[in-house]
Structure formats: structure tokens, C-alpha cells
Amino acid sequence: MKLFIQATTPSGTFFRAGRMWTKDGTVVDSDDFTDAHAKAIENEPHLKVRAATPAEIAASDVPATIPTEAEVIDALLSAIPQMVDDDFTKGGLPDMGKLRAAVAIDDKLVTPELRDAAMEQLLKGGFKAPLKA
Question: Are 41 and 50 within 8 A, CB to CB?
């Protein structure tokens, strides 16, 4: 079954089940999720889940464009503050593997350089990265 999943947060993005959901909504196949992820998505108050319409399914079959560096950084700016302490290295940077799992972007596009650019912006804005002993 094809589902339409839409973020309802003020920021317009929300991360759950290893993916970024947007206010624009995303069409997905319900079989793409583990039972645990499906339950987490279904019970998440920041996500609206419903059956996808035929028009939404047709539009989702259009090949996705490759996100720009700015779009990747925007996704990282949304994902990093939602990460937990164990997702950060001893140096206070998000672990690359965990960061890549938190955003719905091709792993090759989520680079250490873009992570560092996002962290720089977050730190200037007052974000406090967890430091491990």
C-alpha cells in the first residue's frame, strides 16, 4: 500500500524511522518499513499518515532531483539538534554514520565538510554539542 506521510511541525521537517519527512509530504510503500518503524510513524503526532491518492503516487514516480549543498545543509540543520548524546563523537561532532541515517539523502552527499558547515551555523546560533569524557 502506498502511503502519504507529511510533517506537521512548525519547521516543516521531522525525522522519524531514519528518514526526513517534510510539510510537502512523501509517498512511500508501506512495505519499506520494519514493523517497529511503521508503528513509530503511525503513532507519531508530528506526522500525518494516510493512503496516497493516485495523483500523489503518479507524481512520486518522477525521478528526484539531486539536492544542492544548501539543501543538504538545511537537512543537517534540522537533523542535528534532534540527535541524542550517543550520536556525537568525543569531539562534539555528529557521528557521520548516525547523521547519514538521520537524513533521507544519499549517503555520498552527506560529507564531513557539509556536517562541519552545519555545525558551525548551529554553534553560532547557540547550539551546545554534547561533549563526552
Answer: no
